[in-house]
């Protein structure tokens, strides 16, 4: 995707030294476009923990490069295993992180130490390229849903899409998951408009999704998290498309906290609720998302404080709760498969069921 006319991916290797890793500091968006240079595995782990880099597919790709950085210094077995364990522990809910680390380990363990660093960089680059291809395919399949809505409503009526959190290109290596069909629809000339949930407590929708869509010229409106149901009741939402951090083999969906409530409102108002994901987000070992998917509990300060730009143009952090009030901050919730209209993957769309997923991925039937 492009920023001010210049194409970017969300992670890249420095062309000059050929090994340091660059990412955008997402905690600084939308007010500053800062690029971080990561040179150690510890720095990668810190960036993931603090959400300077976030988004399930992207943290998997960046963690893969983190392993490569560790092996540049020491490529023995102990370093490989320790670095992998450290990186895998940074975020518990997103399955892509564990998937990427396991793929790297399976590729690197059989190699002699002298060959590991170069192989790690090559494998991390392959993960990135595959993510881009998968997300582009997700976009093409999701575009068909939006084309169908356009054909149903006619070219004059805008298609209103509601999304929650950020599942755009800044959350992946490129294109995004939930936003990829929207970008393609916009580029094709469809009359699309996006309702962007602010997505408290970290405001990834208001800060990141709105910034992405605005940079690409997509019409959008930021709304309070609790406004989606009201808009659905009044016929102002044609379709909901969200991303996900983990999907069970039975179609349960773990996504940013608040997604479940959107799915309930969508079901009550007969609004299609679609989830876009690469196959790397499917956890084939889990059947019951509510009881089996670990839900990350983040710092209470994300609830009690909020950051933004003040009238003087300075970034400020202010407290919004009374002194002494405690806060709980579960970062994700699980939407049961029964509330999901369908899943959009790189292989096509399917019902949110085990049978539906196996139709697209029959090799997982064993």
From TrEMBL:
Domain of life: Bacteria
Residues the UniProt record annotates as site (Transition state stabilizer): 165
Binding site for substrate: 54-56, 91, 204, 255-256
Enzyme category, top tier: isomerase
GO molecular function, one term: S-methyl-5-thioribose-1-phosphate isomerase activity
Enzyme Commission number(s): 5.3.1.23
Protein keywords: Amino-acid biosynthesis, Isomerase, Methionine biosynthesis
Record InterPro entries: IF-2B-related (IPR000649), IF-M1Pi (IPR005251), IF_2B-like_C (IPR042529), Initiation_fac_2B_a/b/d (IPR011559), M1Pi_N (IPR027363), NagB/RpiA_transferase-like (IPR037171)
Catalytic residues (UniProt): 245
An annotated GO BP: L-methionine salvage from methylthioadenosine
Pathway entry: Amino-acid biosynthesis; L-methionine biosynthesis via salvage pathway; L-methionine from S-methyl-5-thio-alpha-D-ribose 1-phosphate: step 1/6
Catalytic activity, as annotated: 5-deoxy-alpha-D-ribose 1-phosphate = 5-deoxy-D-ribulose 1-phosphate; 5-(methylsulfanyl)-alpha-D-ribose 1-phosphate = 5-(methylsulfanyl)-D-ribulose 1-phosphate
Family as reported in the entry's similarity comment: Belongs to the EIF-2B alpha/beta/delta subunits family. MtnA subfamily.
Cited PANTHER family: METHYLTHIORIBOSE-1-PHOSPHATE ISOMERASE
Free-text function comment from the UniProt entry: Catalyzes the interconversion of methylthioribose-1-phosphate (MTR-1-P) into methylthioribulose-1-phosphate (MTRu-1-P). Also catalyzes the interconversion of 5-deoxyribose 1-phosphate and 5-deoxyribulose 1-phosphate. Part of a bifunctional DHAP-shunt salvage pathway for SAM by-products.
Protein name: Methylthioribose-1-phosphate isomerase
Organism of provenance: Acetobacter garciniae
Organism phylogeny: Bacteria, Pseudomonadati, Pseudomonadota, Alphaproteobacteria, Acetobacterales
Gene coding for it: mtnA
């Amino acid at each position: 995707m492009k920023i001010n006319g210049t194409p970017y991916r969300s992670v890249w290797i420095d062309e000059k030294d050929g090994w340091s890793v660059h990412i955008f500091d997402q905690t600084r968006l939308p007010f500053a476009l800062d690029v971080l240079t990561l040179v150690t595995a510890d720095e990668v782990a810190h960036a993931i923990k603090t959400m300077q880099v976030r988004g399930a597919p992207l943290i998997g790709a960046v963690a893969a490069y983190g392993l490569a950085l560790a092996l540049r210094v020491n490529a023995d077995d102990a370093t490989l295993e320790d670095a992998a364990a450290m990186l895998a522990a940074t975020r518990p809910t997103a399955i892509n992180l564990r998937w990427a680390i396991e793929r790297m380990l399976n590729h690197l363990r059989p190699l002699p130490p002298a060959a590991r660093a170069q192989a790690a960089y090559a494998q991390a680059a392959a993960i990135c390229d595959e993510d881009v291809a998968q997300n582009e395919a997700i976009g093409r399949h999701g575009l068909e849903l939006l084309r169908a809505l356009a054909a149903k409503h006619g070219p004059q009526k805008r298609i209103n899409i509601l999304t929650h959190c950020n599942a755009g290109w800044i959350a992946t290596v490129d294109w995004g998951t939930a936003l990829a069909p929207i970008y393609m629809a916009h580029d094709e000339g469809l009359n699309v408009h996006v309702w962007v949930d602010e997505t408290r407590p970290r405001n990834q929708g208001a800060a990141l999704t709105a910034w992405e869509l605005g940079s690409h010229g997509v019409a959008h409106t930021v709304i309070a998290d609790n406004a989606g149901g009201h808009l659905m009741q009044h016929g102002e939402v044609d379709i909901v498309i969200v991303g996900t951090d983990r999907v069970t083999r039975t179609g349960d969906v773990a996504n940013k906290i608040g997604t479940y409530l959107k799915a309930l409102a969508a079901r009550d108002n007969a609004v299609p609720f679609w989830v876009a994901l690469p196959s790397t987000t499917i956890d084939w070992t889990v059947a019951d998302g509510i009881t089996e998917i670990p839900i990350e509990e983040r710092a209470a300060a994300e609830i009690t404080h909020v950051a933004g730009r003040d009238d003087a143009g300075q970034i400020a952090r202010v407290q919004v709760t009374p002194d002494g009030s405690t806060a709980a901050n579960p970062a994700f919730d699980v939407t049961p498969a029964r509330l999901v209209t369908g899943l959009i993957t790189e292989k096509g769309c399917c019902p949110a069921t085990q049978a539906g997923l196996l139709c697209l991925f029959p090799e997982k039937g064993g």
